[in-house]
């Protein structure tokens, strides 16, 4: 299959998706649930639908180096989402990109991980380089990239402020008096945790952009 044929296939698939979304806008809304479990050590086993991954830290940080760090997956999400998003829009507009290389660089003050200093633990600056091999008009390529970034979930998640709602649930490893949990608290046997928003929404493991 040639690059042009592959581009046409991408365009046709997206045209069908867009048609369905226009016919039923509510169906375009979804909630994706990813779960990670850490037992002994720092190794985190991540699951989302039929997909799994392992994240860990190196031995110098007390981990077992069983997998890449969480930061690897964070940067991988940006690299993949930006690259796919740009190529998706290019395909819809008839631009043929033979190949793309996306590079993400993040600068940190690692002392902030331990509450030291005045810096944020978030990236201090992130640089994203997008290299495209194509015979398309440079102005069209630049316009395509700019518009694609404004529709890209993980680029926007990194760039823009988000509504993030953390919640902590304490589960005892051994029976405890309810009083130990604090006034008005319930034991696990008595407590039903509120469902996370959208847990009944359709999962989109294969369709998720990013």
TrEMBL record:
Regions of compositional bias (Basic and acidic residues) in chain numbering: 201-210
Q: Pfam families under this entry?
A: OsmC
Q: Where is this region: Disordered?
A: 167-210
Q: Which InterPro entries does this chain map to?
A: KH_dom-like_a/b, OsmC/Ohr_fam, OsmC/Ohr_hydroprdx_reductase, OsmC/Ohrsf
Q: Where is the composition biased (Polar residues)?
A: 167-176
Classification via SUPFAM superfamilies: OsmC-like (SSF82784)
Q: What name does UniProt use for this protein?
A: OsmC-like protein
């Amino acid at each position: 299959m040639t690059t042009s044929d592959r581009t046409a296939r991408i365009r046709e698939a997206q045209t069908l998706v867009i048609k369905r979304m226009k016919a039923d806008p509510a169906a375009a809304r979804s909630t994706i649930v990813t779960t990670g479990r850490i037992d002994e050590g720092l190794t985190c086993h991540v699951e989302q639908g039929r997909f799994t991954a392992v994240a860990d830290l190196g031995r110098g940080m007390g981990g077992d180096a069983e997998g890449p760090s969480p930061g690897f997956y964070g940067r991988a999400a940006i690299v993949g989402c930006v690259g796919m998003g740009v190529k998706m829009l290019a395909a819809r507009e008839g631009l043929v990109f033979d190949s793309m290389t996306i590079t993400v660089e993040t600068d940190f003050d690692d002392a902030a991980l331990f509450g030291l200093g005045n810096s944020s633990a978030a990236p201090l600056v992130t640089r994203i380089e997008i290299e495209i091999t194509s015979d398309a008009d440079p102005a069209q390529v630049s316009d395509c990239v700019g518009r694609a970034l404004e529709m890209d979930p993980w680029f926007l998640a990194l760039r823009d402020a988000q509504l993030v709602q953390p919640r902590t649930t304490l589960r005892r490893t051994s029976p405890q008096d309810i009083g130990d949990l604090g006034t008005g608290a319930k034991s696990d046997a008595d407590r039903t945790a509120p469902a996370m928003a959208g847990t009944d929404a359709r999962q989109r493991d294969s369709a998720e952009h990013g």
